[in-house]
Amino acid sequence: MKPKKILFVCLGNICRSPAAEGVMRKKAAGLPIEIDSAGTAGYHIGELPDPRMRSHAAKRGYTLNHHARKFDPDSDFEKFDLILAMDDSNMDDLQRMDKKKSYTHKLKMMTDFCTAKKVSEVPDPYYDGPEGFEHVLDILEDASDGLLQTLNNKK
Predict the structure, then answer these.
(1) Who is most buried in 30, 65, 128, 141, counting CB within 10 A?
(2) Assigned architecture for domain 4-153
(3) What pTM does this model have?
(4) Residue 15 falls in the annotated catalytic set
(5) Is residue 16 annotated as part of the catalytic site, yes or no?
């Protein structure tokens, strides 16, 4: 597999994108993949992921220790091979930041890689109960498996 640099993006970088990063980091362990996450907004810069997401992820064996950061269009578009948005709003934000439309080929929805789940977005669980966080992790596990299959087929 050719080395890949993948960035997961959500709004605040404290629930979905760091969970995607943690899930993918474990599933891709030992593979030549660089993984990071970021938010389109800077509300939580420097913070660890939401404690509820960390707790639910830990029950599945995922460690979420990323510190939130804001997406940097000046470097992230260039640095990463694949930039995966969690929802349509995140995708809209990323497309707006790509002023010259030079990086559209790198932008995809995380759910584009789902193989079992029939969903178009990874919903924000921030205002939900425990079932919201579990649902997000279910989607991220499915999408991560599909993403790994896609990457393996493009060796």
Answers:
(1) 141
(2) 3-Layer(aba) Sandwich (3.40)
(3) 0.96
(4) no
(5) yes
